[in-house]
Amino acid sequence: MIEPVIILGMHRSGTSCLTGCLEAAGLEMGDIDRAPHTNPKGNRENRRIMALNDAVLADNQATWSDPPSLAVKWAAKRIAERDRLIGEYPSDRKWGFKEPRTLLVLQGWLDAIPDAQIVGSFRHPVAAARSLQERNQFPLEKGMELWLHYNRLLLDVCEKQYVPLISFDSSADDYQEQLNGILDFIGISQSEDTNSFFEPDLRRNSISESVALSPEFQSTYDALRARVV
Asked: Which UniProt keywords apply (predicted)?
């Protein structure tokens, strides 16, 4: 059986870039959005997966920006839609998907594809929060709180299984090295086009890793960096 790949990460944290790089290397992503909305190269997300994740969250009185505090329950009709979506991907080659809300509803996906390989992307909390501030007009504090919530969930996943992470704060050379490690993990050969999606100049709100953070943010950020492949 060919294991699918789930790409996890907080909004505005480089998941689109990682997805684009993996697609360029040969990972089948299905019907994804390539239009330049708030991301010049497209967010590389399957809109039906996004809609399903939103529906599951709504069923649990939550949204992506107001995450659930309790374990998420999947209604039967959401499970049926999940299975239909999974069934549309090829069974004879490597495929995957990325959608930040997946972190909030992950167990429902793993119930269907328990052998999925998981990879993740993260970014400095202030950089992600400022990007959300620009895109969604969120107060910086709200973006920071969301960063902490999502990335604690990501670290919880990392505690349960091996999840190679890539840092969107990295230089081009370091990003390429980390990307190569992720490609090795999922079993896709490197190619000349692999890193063509990563353009450091397109990153907005870049922050020095030396920017002072409160202890809870610093410890979470350090824990993420410790898991870089």
From this structure: Transferase
- Asked whether the beta carbons of 200 and 172 are under 8 A apart, the reply is yes
Residue 159, domain extent: 5-225
Residues 6+ apart with CB under 8 A from 157: 8, 103, 106, 118, 120, 163
The helix-helix angle for 140-160 and 215-225 (nearest 10°) equals 40
The closest of 160, 211, 214, 163 to 186, measured between CA atoms, is: 163
- C-alpha 152/C-alpha 63 separation (Å) is 17
Two structure tokens written together for 120: 């993740």
pLDDT digits (tens, 9 = 90+) for 165-198: 999 999 999 999 999 999 999 999 876 555 555 5
Q: Residue 59 in contact with residue 113, Cβ under 8 Å?
A: no
Q: How far apart are CA 74 and CA 104, in angstroms?
A: 12
Its sign, for the CA torsion 155, 157, 160, 165, is negative
Provide the domain count of the chain.
1
Is residue 175 within 8 A of residue 123, CB to CB? The reply is no
CA distance 179 to 164: 10
Return the structure tokens found at 16: 């689109």
CATH of the domain at 159: 3.40.50.300
pLDDT in tens, 4-34: 999 999 999 999 999 999 999 999 998 776 5
Structure tokens at 198: 């990563």
Sign of the CA dihedral 211, 217, 219, 225? negative
